[in-house]
Sequence to fold (119 residues):
Amino acid sequence: MSNDSLKLSGAMVEISTEPTQVIERVVYKYKLENRTAIRFSTRIPMWSDMLHVGMQDGEFFLWALVETGNVPTREVVFHIFGTGMVFKNDDSLVHKATIFDGPFVWHVFQNLTKSEPNS
Fold:
């Protein structure tokens, strides 16, 4: 392990010459499985950013920016309601997307109390 020191204006600054680990990220697509009426869930890497929820070829998907490598996963749970559908007022539901599907319009909410936290 080698560190070099440099004195600047009375302050000592240490400069590390050790290589740093580069964290690589990639966008992955996750099919929202376990469809029961209006509830979908999937597992994604713990440290990920949800980018988009949408429909492709008649199926619902989540696109997320994730770290590569062997990282732990977490479950995310979504509820999907059509325009005009009545549902309980629940502060744990956070709107993530609106999806246009021919004559239908779907509104996607993440259920924060059912989803595992992003630690």
The mean pLDDT is 79.
